[in-house]
Amino acid sequence: MRRRLVAALAAGLVMLVSFPAAARAHPLHSTITELTEDRAHGVVRATIRVFADDFGTAVTHMHKGTLPATPGAAWDAAALAYVSATFGFADRAGRPMAMRSCGTKRTTDLLWICVETTSAEGLAALAVRNGILSDLFDDQVNVVQASVGGARKSLLFTKGDRAKAIAG
Amino acid sequence: MSEFLTFAQLGFRHIVDIEAMDHILFLVALAAIYRFRDLKKVLWVITAFTIGHSITLALAVTGLLTLPSNIIEFLIPITIVATGIENLIVRDRDQAMWGGRYRPVFAGVFGLVHGAGFANYLKALFVDRLAVPLFGFNIGIEAGQLVVLAAIAIAFAGVDYAIQRARAPGAAWQPLRARVVAVSSLVVIVGSAWAVQRSPW
To answer: Looking at chain A from residue 20 to 39, which residues have their Cβ under 8 Å from any Cβ of chain B?
Structure first.
């Protein structure tokens, strides 16, 4: 019995010491997206805040071997393709809506990625999906926030989640 | 879902994740010396830890305190090692300094370090509307810690049972002390290895 106890302790020790995640601090795998609407112009806009290094890894991973190392138009197109594959809006009937870029900026470690779609009915009529970085991290949690009709709405997406109605 | 609940879920998921092994191991080290009947003492220690990490989390996220992440990452396993060593050194807590009641202070101070670990990520993401997300995240962390502690208590019950089975009738050593030594030794070795891996020098 004592031998078994010592063996169990030794096995636990080896497992913990070799645990790869513990060699670095516990990262927060999360993005925060703010949705806004411009009813006058029939535009719904999403500003996605994402850690730049993780996003770069995901885009590179998606376009393995075909992505230029330096930033430029090709990299921007690849980034938009990644966002379109993992994030999107759908109308009441569940049809995906076309998106376009409305710019990207960088602050320290963070990328602010702006995408927009045309919707005369505004946020209340749309659904959103957000699987950004879920292909990279199993524990990825994406938060989407919006103000709809004066009320603050929050949606939480984890790996495998489908589109959710914003006004829900 | 409300903004508060969303961020509470984010905090909860962050702490019950297997990747949070460093924080979980610190909770293991803190809880290693207690039995079920010491619930009140455990609650004092965990409350102090909570207050500690809430303070640095709030100060860092609001920009009032800037902390170098490489130092914080290194200090987290140091808190684990220090707690494990304290468990090993102090055999009789009634005879220890302040009758052993310094442990909540200990947990509170180390909580400051762990809060700084969370803060470095949150600071980047929470750029506006701080109060509700921060409060929700913190509540989620606390709820997650309670779940982790419940799991630790169950695991310790299993360890105690194994020790009791291994103990020869009439043996001089106490089962609780055997658990403290076994768990704390493990914690010290693992924490030391992580400290070396995370060393900024």
So the answer is: 21-28, 30-32
Q: Is B171 on the interface with A (CB under 8 A)?
A: no
Whole-angstrom distance, CA of residue B108 vs CA of residue B114? 10
d(CA B42, CA B7): 26
User: Which of B156, B166, B189 is CA-nearest to residue A3?
Assistant: B166
Q: Which segment of A26-35, A53-62, B121-130 scores lowest on mean pLDDT?
A: B121-130
Q: Would the CA dihedral through B92, B98, B99, B101 be positive or negative?
A: negative
Please tell me which of the candidates A9, A109, A143 has its beta carbon nearest to residue B10: A143
DSSP B168: P
Stretch 1-40 of chain B: residues touching chain A, C-beta under 8 Å:
1-3, 5-7, 9-10, 13-14, 17-23, 25
Q: Which residues pair with A144 in a beta bridge?
A: A33, A155
When pLDDT is averaged across residues B97-101 and rounded to a whole number, the result is: 74
- Across the A:B interface, residue pairs with CB atoms under 8 Å apart total 101
CB contact under 8 A, B190 and A13: yes
Assign A127 to helix, strand or coil: strand
Q: What gap in Å lies between CA A132 and CA B139, rounded to an integer?
A: 25
Q: Per the CB < 8 Å rule, is A28 touching B14?
A: yes
| H or E element at residue A128 | strand A127-130
d(CA B186, CA B191): 8
**Nearest CB to A108 within list B10, B73, B124:** B124
What gap in Å lies between CA B17 and CA B187, rounded to an integer?
A: 19
Assembly ipTM:
0.76
Q: Model's pTM, two decimal places?
A: 0.81
Instruction: Provide the β-strand partners of residue A152.
Output: A147
**Each residue's pLDDT tens digit, A90-121:** 998 889 999 999 988 888 788 999 999 998 88
The upper half-sphere exposure of residue A127, i.e. CA atoms within 13 Å in the direction of its Cβ, equals: 15
Q: Does the beta-carbon distance from B10 to A27 stay under 8 Å? A: no
**Cα gap A102→A149, rounded to integer Å:** 24
Q: Do A30 and B21 touch (CB under 8 A)?
A: no
Q: Which of A61-70, B50-59, B143-152 has the lowest mean pLDDT?
A: A61-70
